[in-house]
Design brief:
about 100 residues, mainly alpha, two-stranded antiparallel sheet, globular, Knr4/Smi1-like_sf, SMI1/KNR4 family protein
């Protein structure tokens, strides 16, 4: 996947949405600055697992993206380590019923 291209397209779409969001219903931030390979190795050691290659490559281009889609965040390294967003995600996952 060409993450530079995909992130650029997503940013352009978010800019257009921000233009029509005259009531400022949602925040429209940029993605976070890319993680380094060293940061990813450290996270994988902390987690005790290797990250999915697609996620790993994304994180090398953007270390997460707050409010990527309205109130939906794309996790960055700090989110995987812990914190409020990880805690909230775990609670939401626990509420899912087996399909």
């Amino acid at each position: 996947m060409d993450w530079k291209r995909e992130i650029g397209i997503a940013h352009l779409v978010k800019q257009k949405v921000a233009q029509v969001d005259t009531a400022c219903l949602w925040p429209h931030p940029l993605p976070e600055v890319a993680a380094s390979d060293t940061d990813l190795i450290s996270l994988e050691a902390h987690l005790g697992v290797s990250l999915d290659p697609k996620l790993r490559t994304f994180l090398l281009h953007a270390d997460g993206w707050r409010s990527f889609y309205q109130s939906v965040d794309v996790f960055g390294l700090n989110d995987f380590r812990g914190g409020e967003r990880k805690h909230r995600a775990e609670i939401l996952l626990e509420t899912l019923e087996d399909i």
